[in-house]
Amino acid sequence: MREIPDFDIYIPSSLSDALDYLSNEGKEAFVIAGCTDFIPMVKRGRIRPIKVLDISHLRELRYITLDSGFIKIGALTTISDLVNSPVFDNRYGGIKSLERYFGVITTRNMATVGGNLASGGERDLIQIFLALDAQVKIRSLQNERVTSPTEAKPNLGELITEITFKDIGADSCMEFSKFEKRAANGISVCTAAVTLKISDNLVEDVKIVVNRVKGREPGRLYRVEESIIGKRIEDAINDVDIMVKSEVDPAGDFRGSKKFRKEITKVLVKRTLIKCIRTITGGVDRV
């Protein structure tokens, strides 16, 4: 573990000030908010910052709103903010589950939505937002662009500002399941995020996301989704595990072989679908 080196910190007065700094003086500055990744990386010598932009106090980027059927989340919203927000009721069990899966309470109080997305990789939040068909807004001083949660790493001079998705509505549920070798602070071995909508005992719409669709890349199982839309929920559950196993091609590593990951992933997807169904039906076991 190394000592933290000296570096210059700029604390902007507003989002506009922050973007102006990045554009004119600090294009290569490290942007910090919760610092749950930044401090460990500096101590381990993985980064040596010279300039740092601290945006942690910008209240204009910390909010959760529901307006005209759309949910908007500011980039500086913390994981604890998500878990405790009244906007997310029992239909959003996947977001509520972050209280269990996302580190300890001190980490959840500091870690931000934007920082988590910017870090990329197999982050739980990326998969949850992908299952909600969310869009991520990224701004520079001159431009704004919209991208998917898996492509949300900012370029030089850019900041993530907002995450937006449509409220899932009635007869719908979003759930998340995770297999890890130790609770809360563990790195995921396999995960599954599912958003499900049921109508007249049929699957009206579904989005299924796993942490390793191919290699180490998270993504949606589009073929599996297409194959169960329109089916009776009992048939969808009976068929889904076989289809998932045939669709995923995960990379193996010391945490789990390819074969092990395929088996666990199919189980997690099935369990997560069942959780969604039980939430939608009020706990009635119809599978």
Detailed description of the structure:
By secondary structure, the chain is of the alpha+beta class. It has three domains: 8-54, Uridine Diphospho-n-acetylenolpyruvylglucosamine Reductase, domain 2 (2-Layer Sandwich); 59-166, Uridine Diphospho-n-acetylenolpyruvylglucosamine Reductase, domain 3, CATH 3.30.465; 172-280, 2-Layer Sandwich (Enolase-like, domain 1). Helices cover 33% and strands 27% of the residues. It contains eleven helices and 13 strands. Helix 9 (222-228) packs antiparallel against helix 10 (233-247) and helix 10 (233-247) packs antiparallel against helix 11. The longest helix is centred in the C-terminal third of the chain and has 23 residues, at 258-280.
The CATH topology of the largest domain comes to Enolase-like, domain 1
* Helix count from the secondary structure assignment: 11
Low-confidence runs: none
Q: Which structural class do you get from the secondary structure elements?
A: alpha+beta
CATH architecture grouping of the largest domain: 2-Layer Sandwich
Largest sheet properties: 5 strands, antiparallel
The CATH superfamily of the largest domain appears as CO dehydrogenase flavoprotein, C-terminal domain
Strand ordering within the main sheet? 4-5-8-6-7
Helix amount, in percent? 25-40%
Rg, alpha carbons = 20 Å
Shape: globular
SSE topology string: EHEHEEEHHHHHHEEEEEEEHHEH
CATH class of the largest domain: Alpha Beta
Number of domains: 3
Beta strands, count? 13
Q: Strand percentage, roughly?
A: 25-35%
How many angstroms separate the termini? 51 Å
Mean pLDDT equals 89
